[in-house]
Protein backbone atom coordinates (compact mmCIF):
# COMPACT_ATOMS: atom_id res chain seq x y z
CA UNK A 1 0.00 0.00 0.00
CA UNK A 2 2.76 2.47 0.92
CA UNK A 3 4.67 1.77 -2.30
CA UNK A 4 1.53 2.28 -4.36
CA UNK A 5 0.57 5.50 -2.54
CA UNK A 6 4.15 6.79 -2.74
CA UNK A 7 4.06 6.04 -6.46
CA UNK A 8 1.06 8.29 -6.87
CA UNK A 9 -1.83 5.83 -6.47
CA UNK A 10 -4.23 7.44 -3.98
CA UNK A 11 -6.68 4.63 -4.62
CA UNK A 12 -4.29 2.44 -2.63
CA UNK A 13 -4.96 4.59 0.42
CA UNK A 14 -8.73 4.64 -0.06
CA UNK A 15 -8.92 0.92 -0.81
CA UNK A 16 -7.33 -0.05 2.53
CA UNK A 17 -10.02 1.85 4.42
CA UNK A 18 -12.61 -0.69 5.58
CA UNK A 19 -16.13 -0.23 4.21
CA UNK A 20 -17.41 0.28 7.78
CA UNK A 21 -14.47 2.36 9.07
CA UNK A 22 -14.94 5.33 11.36
CA UNK A 23 -12.64 8.35 11.51
CA UNK A 24 -13.02 10.76 14.38
CA UNK A 25 -11.61 14.26 14.12
CA UNK A 26 -11.43 15.55 17.71
CA UNK A 27 -11.65 19.10 18.93
CA UNK A 28 -13.79 22.10 18.17
CA UNK A 29 -12.67 22.77 14.59
CA UNK A 30 -15.40 22.91 11.92
CA UNK A 31 -14.59 19.41 10.64
CA UNK A 32 -14.57 17.83 14.13
CA UNK A 33 -16.95 14.88 14.15
CA UNK A 34 -17.02 11.19 13.35
CA UNK A 35 -17.04 10.16 9.71
CA UNK A 36 -18.51 6.74 8.96
CA UNK A 37 -17.68 4.44 6.07
CA UNK A 38 -15.10 4.43 3.30
CA UNK A 39 -17.11 6.66 0.98
CA UNK A 40 -17.80 9.37 3.57
CA UNK A 41 -14.12 9.38 4.57
CA UNK A 42 -13.06 9.59 0.90
CA UNK A 43 -15.44 12.51 0.37
CA UNK A 44 -14.03 14.34 3.41
CA UNK A 45 -10.47 13.81 2.18
CA UNK A 46 -11.52 15.08 -1.23
CA UNK A 47 -13.26 18.07 0.34
CA UNK A 48 -10.21 19.00 2.39
CA UNK A 49 -7.90 18.61 -0.59
CA UNK A 50 -10.24 20.50 -2.87
CA UNK A 51 -12.09 19.37 -5.93
CA UNK A 52 -8.78 18.53 -7.58
CA UNK A 53 -8.47 15.32 -5.53
CA UNK A 54 -11.97 14.21 -6.43
CA UNK A 55 -11.45 15.01 -10.12
CA UNK A 56 -8.11 13.21 -10.25
CA UNK A 57 -9.40 10.27 -8.19
CA UNK A 58 -12.32 9.88 -10.62
CA UNK A 59 -9.99 9.86 -13.62
CA UNK A 60 -7.75 7.29 -11.90
CA UNK A 61 -10.73 5.03 -11.24
CA UNK A 62 -12.19 5.57 -14.72
CA UNK A 63 -8.96 4.78 -16.54
CA UNK A 64 -7.47 2.36 -13.95
CA UNK A 65 -4.25 4.38 -13.75
CA UNK A 66 -2.16 5.82 -10.93
CA UNK A 67 -2.99 9.12 -9.32
CA UNK A 68 0.12 10.69 -10.85
CA UNK A 69 -1.00 9.66 -14.34
CA UNK A 70 -4.56 10.78 -13.62
CA UNK A 71 -3.32 14.19 -12.47
CA UNK A 72 -1.76 14.71 -15.88
CA UNK A 73 -4.94 13.62 -17.67
CA UNK A 74 -7.07 15.91 -15.47
CA UNK A 75 -4.72 18.85 -16.06
CA UNK A 76 -4.81 18.32 -19.81
CA UNK A 77 -8.62 18.13 -19.73
CA UNK A 78 -8.78 21.36 -17.71
CA UNK A 79 -6.48 23.21 -20.12
CA UNK A 80 -8.38 21.85 -23.13
CA UNK A 81 -11.67 23.00 -21.58
CA UNK A 82 -10.31 26.49 -20.96
CA UNK A 83 -8.99 26.73 -24.51
CA UNK A 84 -12.28 25.45 -25.94
CA UNK A 85 -14.23 28.01 -23.87
CA UNK A 86 -12.12 30.73 -25.49
CA UNK A 87 -12.71 29.29 -28.97
CA UNK A 88 -9.04 28.34 -29.36
CA UNK A 89 -9.45 24.56 -29.24
CA UNK A 90 -10.26 22.39 -31.12
Secondary-structure-based class equals mainly alpha
- The strand line-up of the biggest sheet is 1-2
Which shape, going by the Cα principal axes? elongated
Number of DSSP E strands: 2
Proportion of residues in β-strands: 5-15%
Number of helices: 5
Helix content: 55-70%
Main sheet specs: 2 strands, antiparallel
Q: Rg from C-alpha positions?
A: 16 Å
What is the first-to-last residue Cα distance? 40 Å
Instruction: Give average pLDDT, whole number.
Output: 79
Could you spell the SSE succession in H and E letters?
HHEEHHH
Word description of this protein:
With 90 residues, the chain is mainly alpha-helical. The chain has one domain. Helices cover 60% and strands 9% of the residues. The protein is built from five helices and two strands. It has helices at 2-6, 10-15, 38-48, 51-63, 67-85, and strands spanning 22-25, 33-36. Strand 1 and strand 2 (33-36) form a beta hairpin. The chain is elongated and about 50 Å long. The mean pLDDT is 79.
Key terms:
single chain, 90 residues, mainly alpha, two-stranded antiparallel sheet, 5 helices, 2 strands, 60% helix, 9% strand, elongated
SSE topology:
Blueprint: H1 2-6, H2 10-15, E1 22-25, E2 33-36, H3 38-48, H4 51-63, H5 67-85
Antiparallel strand pairs: 1-2
Helix pairs in contact: 3-4, 4-5
Give a nutshell description of this structure.
60% of the residues lie in helices and 9% in strands.
Amino acid sequence: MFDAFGGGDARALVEVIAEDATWTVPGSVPVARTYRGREEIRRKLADKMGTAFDRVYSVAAEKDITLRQAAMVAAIRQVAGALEARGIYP
